Amino acid sequence: MQNKLARIAKDTNLFLKRFIKGQKRTELVAAMEYGLFPGGKKIRSKILIDIGAIFKINYKTLISIGTAVECIHAYSLIHDDLPCMDDDKIRRGKISTHIKFGESTAVLAGNSLLTMAFEILVSSDLKINDKIKVDLVKKLSESSGHLGIAGGQYLDLSFEKKKVSKSKIIDMEIKKTGKLFSFCCAVPVIIKRKNDKQIKFFENIGSNIGLLFQIADDLIDFKGSTAIAGKITGKDKKKGKATLISLLGYQNAIKYADKIKSKIIKDLNKYSSNTKSLNETLDYILKRNK
């Protein structure tokens, strides 16, 4: 698994470095690169490739689209870390972008990564037809804005120190984390021009993968080590964050995560028996410590 993630990370970063190098270098690029490289675990890109394998989508095409996803993810982390948001000073084992470059530069670098994702999707580097590119831009836009990441972050902040129902927490976590995974799962279906019902089926799988990922993240925050995680742990309890752990308790949250994982595999088996690689990724998500 680590070798597969390392290969994806290498190919993703090579594409991104080449893409940025092909543009005019501005004063914001250093902060953008700081937020992008070396980057995280590339789990979202791995999920994209796992689902893409079911539909026999070209690996290089998936990597190109994955780089757009990583730009969106990096932008969201830069903004989440800001003092007006979650106020995190450490990210991916180094000081956060706003600590390194200042708050205004971090905001603008995040904005630039957000828009660069769409530049990548419509660029000539992506070898798919223009109609599919438009569909991908639309889907990624929905996943990133008020219906997705931004909306989820708003709810996350507004739920602090409040009693929140399970359904509202799940809705928030699916928006904040699940929507980007939904995009990754929908991409191969969109490229193959399947119908809306099939796209929705894979989006729902992605939502559940995102929920699983968020629970694993919350478990790390609850019991993990700052040194290993590469970010400060124990923040959720201090800030009164609404999480499934705070609602259900640690052990019940683990049981709930196992239940979600079983549902993902069961649903996917209805469509394909080629789930070994995805199953491996889901195990990694659940067992990770950073």
Helices and strands in order:
Elements: H1 2-21, H2 29-36, H3 43-54, H4 59-80, E1 90-91, E2 94-95, H5 97-101, H6 103-122, H7 130-144, H8 149-158, H9 166-191, H10 196-223, H11 226-229, H12 235-239, H13 244-248, H14 250-269, H15 276-287
Low-pLDDT residue spans: none
Mean pLDDT level = 93
Give the percentage of residues in beta strands. under 5%
Shape: globular
User: How would you characterize the largest beta sheet?
Assistant: 2 strands, antiparallel
Task: Tell me the distance between the termini.
Answer: 15 Å
Structural class: mainly alpha
**From N to C, what is the helix and strand string?**
HHHHEEHHHHHHHHHHH
* Rg calculated over all Cα atoms: 18 Å
Count of distinct strands: 2
Give the helix tally.
15
The helix content is over 70%
Widest beta sheet: strand line-up = 1-2
Question: Can you give a write-up of this model?
Answer:
Strands 1-2 form a two-stranded antiparallel ribbon. The relative contact order is 0.11. The mean pLDDT is 93. The chain is built from 15 helices and two strands. The protein has helices at residues 2-21, 29-36, 43-54, 59-80, 97-101, 103-122, 130-144, 149-158, 166-191, 196-223, 226-229, 235-239, 244-248, 250-269, 276-287, and strands at 90-91, 94-95. Helices cover 73% and strands 1% of the residues. The chain has 290 residues and is mainly α.
Structure, briefly:
With 290 residues, the protein is mainly α. The chain contains 15 helices and two strands.
Protein traits:
290 residues; mainly alpha; two-stranded antiparallel sheet; 15 helices; 2 strands
